[in-house]
Amino acid sequence: MDVTQQIEAAAELIRNANGILITDGARMGLDSGLPDFRGDDGFWRAYPALRAEGIGFMDIANGEAFKRDPVRAWGFYGHRLNLYRRTAPYEGFNILRRWASAKEHGAFVFTSNVDGQFQKAGFEANRILECHGSIHRLQCTRPCSHETWSADDFHAEVDEEHCALTSALPRCPKCGSVARPNILMLDDDDWNDYAIRRRRLRFEAWLAGVERMAIVEVGVVRTAPSVHGVPEMTRSQVIRINRPADAIDPKRGINICGGALGILRQLSGFI
Question: Where is the active site (predicted)?
């Protein structure tokens, strides 16, 4: 099929569905202007202070960093938290939400992103499964309990030149230990996934209740098996919007190569 045929076939799947499963990955946020941290080159462009010290993404994006040097770790994550708070979701999120609002069962979002863009775009919070957690919630570094809490009261002041937190470190309200983002990091034995497991039960119940599902997968990289494997939980066809290298098996769905926003706009013209 050429691109026009792919768009028309994908639009028909969406029109005939009574529920939409939206899965997304790292590339979804690029159209909102968020940086691409994949690989040390992309990471170091955003954090030159860490490059000067030879600190790579794998060195800072792990739970042990909060034990070794919480001021530096929060310099990185505090900057990201502030960035995500400032960033407005781009038009593609609104397009997906409009499609979902017209469906009997609405939509459920399964995302590996931790930026909270879907919530900011107006999707129902209890219909979003953030499989790697959220930077907008905190947990104890120990951890001393299953509890997580909102990061809304934490205002990170960061010396961006040195990638260091200059405001007070956030603390666990139960034991007083340093708090960290409730995010699954690299080699992370301390991530508190209690809330995620509870949300997964809601997600599985929603899947079981949708008779005609369309799966719209946007910007999921091959290195994110936690998201790529989600369509295998259903027999529904997948509409994959991504680069050619990440093409889906034609038996499982429709692959549309290109940037997310441009493709979503084209699809919207047929729905």
Answer: 132 (proton acceptor)
Q: Round the average pLDDT of the chain to a whole number and report it.
A: 90
Sign of CA dihedral 196, 112, 12, 252: negative
Q: What is the pLDDT of residues 131-161, one digit of tens each?
A: 999 999 999 999 999 999 999 999 999 999 9
Amino acid letter, 267: L
What is the b/e burial string over 142-152, where b = at least 16 CB atoms within 10 angstroms of the residue's CB? Answer: ebeeebbbebe
Q: State if pTM tops 0.85.
A: yes
Report which of 142, 145, 136 is spatially closest to residue 194, judged by C-alpha positions: 145
- Check whether 172 is labelled as a binding-site residue: yes
| 105 noted as active-site residue | no
Q: What is the pLDDT of residues 13-50, one digit of tens each?
A: 999 999 999 998 866 777 777 776 655 566 777 788 88
**What does the block give as tokens for 47?**
């954090």
Of 79, 132, 136, 228, the catalytic one is: 132
256 and 249 Cβ atoms separated by less than 8 Å: no
Delineate the domains of the chain, giving CATH numbers in brackets.
3-268 (3.40.50.1220)
